[in-house]
Amino acid sequence: MTTLPHPFAQDAASQAASEPPRGARWRRRGTILLAALVAFVAAGATALHALDAPLHAGPPPAGVTDPLPSARPPSTLAFSVLQTGVSGGAAEALLVGRGRWTEHRRPSQSAVLIRHPHGVMLYDSGLGRQVDAQFAVNDRFHRHAFRYERSGFLPALDQLERAGWHPELVRFIVPSHLHWDHVSGLPDFPDAQVWVTPEEREHAQRGQPPAFLKSQFDGVRHWRDLRFDGPPRLGFSASHDVFGDGSVVLLPLAGHTAGQVGLWLRLPSGRSYLFTGDVTWTIEGVQQAADRSWLLRRLLPLDHDERSNQAAILHLHHIMKHHPDITIVPAHDENVLKTLPSFPALQG
Ligand SMILES: [Zn+2]
């Protein structure tokens, strides 16, 4: 009589022969783990790609396709960009939906100087002399997230003085909005009027760091309420003509903040620029009708009203399409700013 072997009874020698050595087992486990990780990252990237899809453009807002209204820019009108700081930066894919992960962008903080025969003005003020003290109220996370580089730091006031411009020449400042990286320089120009919409000022008064730093605007002595009392232009429902000759026109761009303001500059040379604050951080956002990355918008509350800001992105997208002669300038796009005259050079 033969005895059948028990199904689980293997002798030690055959068990050792059927099992891979310990090193091979770990290698196999490592491969499985790596494959799972790659699949996880790929699934995440695919989901993010879908979430960062361009906005649906639809038809242009009424008036965008109209011929441009006439302007009479004076022959001495000119402008220049004063780059005051450079941020630590981030991957382009965070700054604009479907941007490149491989491209590290360094958004800059600038002021735009406009010299008009009726007065010198700034649009935004960039980082000012007191930025370190202003910025110190932020917590550690935000100090890192919004850090600025020491090497690129040169306040507008220093640049003006070095070039022999008296700071009191700056009669007024129009901040695109009151976020910290646009109004840090306000205390450096205590005699200048600061033009802000009532909505923006109220928003900022209620605001908190890191977006709004009260020390930057609490000391402003000469506020002026900015009202859009002029006719529709470029598809915007109203406008404000600063000098009455159509050369410098302010436009409502609310969304990113409650009362953000754009500036349309028309020079004697016929060149034309539309400064758009923080509707987008890069020109690619306007070109592709793309918002900031979904991931970043979930991590940080970036916009006062995301829907309104997206409407503003689409509006600018249509302007770019129908008026290619107008150069659109997002406040922080270092690549676009590089193409503009850098102070003390001026362009008319
Ligand atoms: Zn902003």
Plain-language structure description:
By secondary structure, the protein is α/β, with parallel strands linked by helices. The protein has two domains: 30 residues; 260 residues, Metallo-beta-lactamase, Chain A (4-Layer Sandwich). It contains 13 helices and 13 strands. The strands form three sheets. The protein has a six-stranded mixed beta sheet with strand order 1-4-5-6-7-8. It has a five-stranded mixed beta sheet with strand order 9-10-11-12-13, with helices on one face. The structure holds zinc ion.
Secondary-structure blueprint:
Layout: H1 12-18, H2 22-51, E1 78-86, E2 90-91, H3 92-95, E3 104-105, E4 108-116, E5 119-123, H4 131-135, H5 140-145, H6 156-162, E6 170-174, H7 180-183, E7 193-196, H8 198-206, H9 214-217, E8 223-225, E9 240-241, E10 248-252, E11 261-266, E12 272-275, H10 283-287, H11 294-299, H12 306-322, E13 326-329, H13 334-337
Parallel strand pairs: 5-6, 6-7, 7-8, 12-13
Antiparallel strand pairs: 1-4, 2-3, 4-5, 9-10, 10-11, 11-12
The chain binds zinc ion.
